[in-house]
UniProtKB/TrEMBL annotation, chains A, B:
Pathway membership: Amino-acid biosynthesis; L-methionine biosynthesis via de novo pathway; L-homoserine from L-aspartate: step 1/3; Amino-acid biosynthesis; L-lysine biosynthesis via DAP pathway; (S)-tetrahydrodipicolinate from L-aspartate: step 1/4; Amino-acid biosynthesis; L-threonine biosynthesis; L-threonine from L-aspartate: step 1/5
Catalyzed reaction equations: L-aspartate + ATP = 4-phospho-L-aspartate + ADP
Key words of the record: Amino-acid biosynthesis, ATP-binding, Kinase, Lysine biosynthesis, Nucleotide-binding, Transferase
Keyword NADP among UniProt keywords: no
Record-level Gene Ontology MF annotations: aspartate kinase activity
Classification of source organism: Bacteria, Pseudomonadati, Pseudomonadota, Alphaproteobacteria, Rhodobacterales
Organism for this UniProt entry: Psychromarinibacter halotolerans
Gene3D superfamilies reported in the protein's UniProt record: Acetylglutamate kinase-like (3.40.1160.10), VC0802-like (3.30.2130.10)
EC number(s) given by UniProt: 2.7.2.4
Keyword Iron: no
Protein name as it appears in the record: Aspartokinase
InterPro entries attached to this UniProt entry: AceGlu_kinase-like_sf (IPR036393), ACT-like_dom_sf (IPR045865), ACT_Aspartokinase (IPR054352), ACT_dom (IPR002912), AKii-LysC-BS (IPR041740), Asp/Glu/Uridylate_kinase (IPR001048), Asp_kin_monofn (IPR005260), Asp_kinase (IPR001341)
Family: Belongs to the aspartokinase family.
Length: 412, 412
């Protein structure tokens, strides 16, 4: 039997009624001839409740105990889903992470999957079981303790199972009906994409389009897992949702696939840094040690022997970044005149594999922004992405202008 | 280090604040020089919520999935208790049943403990861990599935750990401060017992004094585990609670230790049964097959070749008993004129190991009931117990009269 992986997120299993609706979708795929591996999240709200308990009990918690506590919500959903399927006369059973076993590293609360031996579940499929319901987000460490994969880790669980079992496809059921050219709340011209390339999805995921966890997309790309994102409340036909796939599987595509944005950006500038070989390491080493996620970096030569260094980071890490820089200055590791933080910025990006073969995307983007009178503060580019930092008040306008200029409302 | 087992029930860990108070008690015993094994129940209400989910999902549920779901509440409490102890700088970690491993039979939702290998936990004590927090009520089957021990199974978990680890004592912390001579809500003369023999506790437990699960007392008796029942809201001194122990450890005791009652009894009479060898088996076999828990049995010869057969069972099993009897009659296995159910009865019992060596307890009991004008419908006796079935409206009066006549308000 071909194997299909279906993942249901927290809102899709939030109540017994929703679990029942999700189970009906599983039943359809069983009727279609698949052996199905279902990955479930906790009922929405449960994990937050458990995390709240842990944080209230112990602010600097032992991550091993955190994992033991917060993983329990998925166990409940897995059992209830198996029972629901059994009521529909579909042979099913639940599996907790340690039962599979889903082997991970010992990095508690942010563990990485090392191995998923398929034997146990395959043996049950061989005995006539049609659905293996697996508790997402959790695994077991080499020491035999329960681990979790970090928030959103159930997407990663699903893709890892699809890879380990050679599944025909991995369907991620969620509360949106696919990946859009941009956020429909910002542009009413936003269009659902039927297909998107892994690389594009990766850029969009890490740029703040919260449809899929970045790691799950990376994993799908590495193991060539066909990944589909679709709504658990909509249709189930062939064209439902968005297929995330290899770029060869996309016959025609727009140069730009989508416009992403991120509101939570801050721009920080170290003014008049004494320049010398190794100065970048002297700045960004302490920032990394302080847990600051630096995104964009720009260096301008201001005068002979001195430079301005600008970087961006999430708004809530500004205080931490300032502390790290001032400490490095006091220690004599770096020397700068001033540190200026601008928390009124936003990042807007255009993403598309078509950029590789089409020149002029950057020029078109910059012109469109200029025409709207939007000043660009920082620019970074990759092979398939151009990002700019702008004043936050222009963010929606920029997204709409870029969506228009690249004609994303039209399918290719 | 000597080992102590401490068990906290659902009301003792109902909130983070209560978990913290329970943890302080554990801290006292650690300071007293013990290595402590803490057994925890789920936060009160959690297990009922999960059972509700399962029953709503699947009325005839797969007990394996039931166990996977309902065991999760204890995992949460175990992790939170370990974190609370760590905050108090007491080295602690949580263990789920399968991690210990607590090995059970495959009788899901009513599994029996087969083995608790102490090596893993002892190794951690050897490394300096002071407290092992174990999720109660759960274990692992030979097939690697999660099992549960039945409601109240955390008491049994605690006693089994005390036996497996040769613990000095097993302290059961609950919401009452010990075992009473009778229910204080029925008689204001009820007195807390400092000590009670295993055999007496066993009779009281199975008679409806809901302080300890019957199986935990059986297990404690078999392995000579000193069991103490005490309140998690009261004092912690030597004399707190009630010690359940071997009768040799009780120097002086009253002839009668306590008066128990059970409201949920029904009296059923098969009138004019055609008597023949094997008729008892023909009646009680089908009742057992139908899952009816028959308690008392009385047979009266009514006329030549016919007999009246009376038995008692829980009120909510009357319909099932009637169905089983009528089916057996239709099948020609038994023959009776009528089946009369009386659901307005209650059972009252006096229990005491002193009865073995003191004659006249039964006569004293029957006289006391006669003096109150209470008619006895059925009598059964064991070596250390006399039970009577009476009209339910006289239940409180009977309990009070028996408490008085045996002077239970006075310590021996």
């Amino acid at each position: 039997m071909p194997i299909l992986v279906m993942k249901f997120g927290g809102t899709s299993v939030a109540t017994l009624d929703r679990i029942s609706r999700a189970a009906k979708r599983v039943g359809v795929e069983v009727a279609n001839g698949y052996d199905v591996i279902v990955i479930v999240s906790a009922m929405s709200g449960e994990t937050n409740k458990l995390v709240g308990f842990v944080e209230e009990t112990s602010p600097m918690f032992d991550a091993r105990e955190y994992d033991a506590v917060v993983s329990s919500g998925e166990n409940v959903t897995a059992g209830l889903m198996a029972l629901t399927l059994q009521e529909m006369e579909i042979p099913a059973r639940s599996w907790q992470g340690w039962q599979v076993p889903l082997k991970t590293t010992s990095a508690h609360s942010a563990a990485r999957i090392e191995e998923i031996p398929p034997e146990n579940i395959l043996a049950k499929f061989g005995e006539g079981m049609k659905v293996a319901v697996v508790a997402g987000f959790q695994g077991i460490s080499p020491e035999g303790r329960i681990t979790t994969l970090g928030r959103g880790g159930s997407d990663t669980t699903a893709v890892a199972f699809a890879a380990a079992f050679g599944a025909e496809r991995c369907d991620i059921y969620t509360d949106v009906d696919g990946v859009y050219t941009t956020d429909p709340r910002i542009s009413d011209k936003a269009r659902k994409l039927d297909k998107i390339a892994f690389e594009e999805m990766l850029e969009l995921a890490s740029l703040g389009a919260k449809v899929l966890q970045t790691r799950s997309v990376e994993l799908a790309m590495r193991y060539k897992v066909k990944l589909r994102v679709l709504s658990s409340f909509g249709e189930m036909d062939e064209s439902a949702g968005t297929l995330v796939c290899d770029e060869e599987d996309i016959v025609e595509s727009n140069v730009v696939a989508g416009v992403a944005y991120s509101r939570d950006e801050a721009k920080m500038t170290l003014i008049s840094v004494a320049d010398r070989p190794g100065i970048a390491a002297a700045i960004f080493g302490p920032l990394a040690d302080a847990g600051v996620n630096v995104d964009m970096i720009v260096q301008n030569i201001a005068e002979e022997g001195r430079t301005d260094m600008t970087f961006s980071c999430p708004t809530n890490q500004v205080a931490r970044a300032e502390a790290a820089m001032n400490k490095a200055k006091e220690a004599g590791d770096i020397n700068f005149h001033d540190l200026v933080a601008d928390t009124n910025v936003a990042k807007v990006s255009v993403v598309g594999i078509g950029m590789r073969s089409h020149a002029g995307v950057a020029a078109k983007m910059f012109n469109a922004l200029k025409d709207e009178g939007i000043n660009i503060k920082v620019i970074t580019t990759s092979e398939i992405k151009i990002s700019v930092l702008i004043d936050r008040k222009y963010m929606e306008l920029a997204v709409q202008a870029l969506h228009d200029v690249f004609e994303l409302e039209k399918a290719s």
